[in-house]
User: What shape does this take?
Amino acid sequence: MLGYYILLFGVVLIITGTSEFMMPGRFFAFWKAWVSHRLFFLHGAGLIAVGFPLTCYGSAPMGTFVLGFGLLLVFTGPFILLYANKIRKLFLVTTADMDEAASRHLIYFDAGVRLAVGALFVYSFVIR
Assistant: This one.
């Protein structure tokens, strides 16, 4: 059952990364709106909830990678829960000075990381 969670998570990451590559401007606007939203602190709770099952996937050949990524999500979540306003300020100040090309490159980097992690998750499910 956990393997299917890993597969679904990988497929969602691949779809999201591909969408970011195709529409970087819309995704940058989405992230800016989400970070500015008053419920942004719940993003931390979501990271914890999504990352926790990944920490139980240690026995598969790619289990160490999945475990490490799960721990990264679980340990990042509390920082967003506790310091959402500071993260919001940092993001908004940083992106205020960006031109369109810089914001597009930022989204391309994010999309590349999502695609790579998603592909490794799918690969982890296939070789188990």
